[in-house]
Amino acid sequence: MSHDPVIEPIALPSLGGFRLLDVRELAAFEGDHPASAVRVPIEVWEAAAKTGETSFENVDYWERAIATLGVDGQMPNVVYDDGRMTEAARVWFILQYFGARTLILNGGWPAIRGHEDLLATAERPAGTATFRAQPGSGPVGLVDRKSLAAELDRDVRIFDARTKDEFAGEDLRRNARGGHLPGARLLPHSHLLDSGLLKPAEDLRELLTAAGFQQGDHVVTHCDGGGRAALAAAAVARAGYEDVRAYYLSFADWAKDESCLIVRD
Asked: Taking every annotated instance into account, which residue ranges of this chain make up the domain Rhodanese (predicted)?
C-alpha cells in the first residue's frame, strides 16, 4: 500500500480538519503566517534529535514536545517550510516516526501565501494536547549507525541524498572524513525537486530506477545531517516504495566513527 507523504495545496480542503505546522524561522513566522498555524521550534528539534539525552530514544521528551504543538494523534497535520522542503521533511519524519499522521505541503509557504481559502478547514489548537507516542509506527522507519553497519552486506540499498562533491569526499562540510558509505547510490536531493516542488510519483520512480533502485528494495536514505535524508525518504515513499527507513543522523554520524568504512572513488 502506498503512503504518499506529500499533499498538494489544492488538496488541503479535502482533509477536512487539520493542524497547520509552520517550520520556518521565528522571524519569518512572526512576519507573516496563517492565523491557524502553530510554529514548530525547528532549531530546538534539530539540536535535540542529535543530542544523547533528547535523542529519539527519549520517547517522553518527544511526546511532550509534540503534544505542546497541539498534535493529538487523531487530526492530520500539515507541515510547511520556506519552500526548501528539507526542514518540513525533517519535522514530518519525526512526527510520523512517533505515530502522528503528517503530510508535507508541496511547495511550502510560497504555495499557500495569500491563499487563505485553501486553509479554511485548518484548526488552531487551544493548547497542549494529549499525545501518546508510538515509536516506529509511521510508514518510514529509523535506522541507527550500528544497525546500518551490520546490514551493509545484506539486502539494503543506500540512497545518498548529498551533493556530488560530498559523495566524492571533495566537500567535507564539518566532517573529519569524506566520501560515501559502501554500496551507496548517489541521487542528490535537488534532483527530486522541480521549481520548489517535490516531483510527481512517476518522475520520482524514473529517477530512482536510473539510480539503481527497484520496487521491493529495502531503501535507507541519508544525507549529512537529516533534512535531505528525510526529504529523500518522503520521495521514495511517494514513488510507491514500501520498505523505507532514514538514517537520520546520517553521514556526520557515520564519519565520526573510525570503525565505519568510508569509500572514496
From this structure: 14-121, 152-263
